[in-house]
Amino acid sequence: MPDPEPKGPLRRCIATRESLPKEAMIRFVLGPERQLVPDLAGRFPGRGMWLSARADVLERAQKRGAFSRAARGQVHLPPDLRAQIETGLKGRIRDQVGLARRAGQAVCGFQQVREWLQADRAAVLVEASDGSPSERARLTGRRDVPLVLALSAGDLGSVFGRDHAVHVAIAPGKIAEMLLQEAGRLAAVSGIADGAGT
Fold it and tell me: Which residues form the signal peptide (predicted)?
């Protein structure tokens, strides 16, 4: 079977020249001093430059001057560009978890998450990256639920007003979809995945 047609607007990658959905890409703009700024939400003013959200594509764009060509002039690249993008995407994931908590679409704690799993109420599990893999396996069992491992227990805990949180379940809906989208971009930029998943 052929791949389904992508939904929504497509953008052309300045490095690979392939057209992809915006959700699989990262937008960049130029700051006042022609410094390159990642626009992870896609809302900064100015002409955007789009790049596939993949570690190898980012590296290629930096080495081969793709940003300067697209901007038709000199561009100042921050030395920690990839780290900036990863930090920004983690922040966006944390924001989505916070939004889910405020909307009543998230619970944390082993027992509450297990209850949601048993009742098929969890669309996504956000697990602390520094949590125990064996405890995670005991919690999920054989259930096929997407896992996001982007935030530490301290980061997750701060969303829920605690010192730490290890297990978080997110209900089905738009917030869960956005969270998975951001986690997919983070995994791809980090070199963990090819952009197709988390």
Answer: none
The CA angle 87-55-3, to the nearest 5 degrees, is 110
Report whether 163 contacts 154 (CB < 8 A): yes
CA dihedral 139, 141, 145, 146 (to 10 degrees): 70
Residue ranges and CATH numbers for the domains of the chain are 10-79 (3.30.1230.10), 84-189 (3.30.1330.30)
Report helix angle 133-140 to 110-118, nearest 10: 30
Quick one: tokens of 35? 């410094």
Give the Cβ contact number of residue 195 at 10 Å: 18
Give the contacts of 73 (CB within 8 A, at least 6 positions apart).
Answer: 34
- C-beta neighbour count of 79 within 10 angstroms: 7
**HSE value, Cβ hemisphere, 13 Å, CA-based, for 47:** 6
pLDDT per position as a tens digit, 48-97: 999 999 999 999 999 999 999 999 999 999 999 999 999 999 999 999 99
